Structure formats: C-alpha cells, structure tokens
C-alpha cells in the first residue's frame, strides 16, 4: 500500500466540496429529467442512483452513479451472473434509458462520485476503480495498481483516451503511483491539475474517460 499524500487529500476535499455546491443545479435538472421520464415511460422507472461494489486501495466500497440503465436490465444482469458488469450492459443501447443515454454521452452519470471523493473512498486523480470480478482477474494476473492506491474519478490513462497514447492502463497507473511516491506535494498537485484539465478536454470532445 502506498501512503496517500496529505496535500492530495486536502485538494480532494476542497475541490469535491466546491464542485458539489456548484453543480447542485445540474443535479436538480438531472433528477427532474429522470423522474419525468419515469412518469412517461414505465421501463425507465427506478432509483435515481445506482451503487456498485468496487475496489479502492484493495478495499471494497460502494461507487455512486446516476442510474442510466433500465431497472429490468439491471435485474436481468444480476440474475444471470450475480455481479453486474456495466461495461457489458452499455454495449446494447436498449438497456439504457433515454436520459441515461445522454448522461453517458457526456459522462455526467459519474457526477455522484464526487461524494465518494469527499468522504475519502476515492480521489480526484488515481487508477479507475474496478468491480470485484475484474479485481479477481487483476489479482490472478499480478496487476497491483488497483490494490495499492486510492481509486480515482479520472486517471492518467483515462485522461489520454482518444489521444495518441502508447502505455497500457496498468503501466500508466503504476507510473502515476510511483510519481506520487517520489514527488513533492506541489508537483503532485500540478500533475493532478494537468490530468484534470486534459480529462475535461477529453469529455468536451465526447471521448471515453
């Protein structure tokens, strides 16, 4: 386990708290849109939030998202495999609600993870969290990045998705973790800001985080 930098944690708390306040009107619009769609389309009814077990620093936590899938699709996936793979569900657009399709396109379904950051389950920048099935595969393959550092809202690898980038995800994550282990607090903050800005650019171009 890599010691988590105190300055990075302070940055996480300040930024996530500020963003939760600033995006409150957006949350209200999203919740209203989901509620209205549920009233008009029976198959789109269900909970506002979707929570899934993920791994961060080798520990299991509940990751928060806006629900983008139809409730029946989630129930079917749960019944079939016991563990829901949202990546698999996303491959068939029929599993998504209309509002969910828009949220996925601009990555706003990830917005509730700001709460995960605020309470210390995630960080703004770090390896993206994985579900339990993928965690078992990573463990068997000797991949360690998801177990030794706090999971991030975005990461070094994800921020470059859609751009020319030669590193595999595990390599990119380990490079970032090693940087956090060696660099000064201010260098870590500057690197995090750089990754966040690139991530915003990637989102605006509608590329995958």
From TrEMBL:
InterPro entries: Bact_transf
Family note: Belongs to the bacterial sugar transferase family.
Highest taxon above the source species: Bacteria
UniProt domain Bacterial sugar transferase: residue ranges: 8-204
Any one Gene Ontology molecular-function term assigned to this protein's record: phosphotransferase activity, for other substituted phosphate groups
Protein name: Bacterial sugar transferase domain-containing protein
Entry-linked PANTHER family: COLANIC BIOSYNTHESIS UDP-GLUCOSE LIPID CARRIER TRANSFERASE (PTHR30576), UNDECAPRENYL-PHOSPHATE N-ACETYLGALACTOSAMINYL 1-PHOSPHATE TRANSFERASE-RELATED (PTHR30576:SF0)
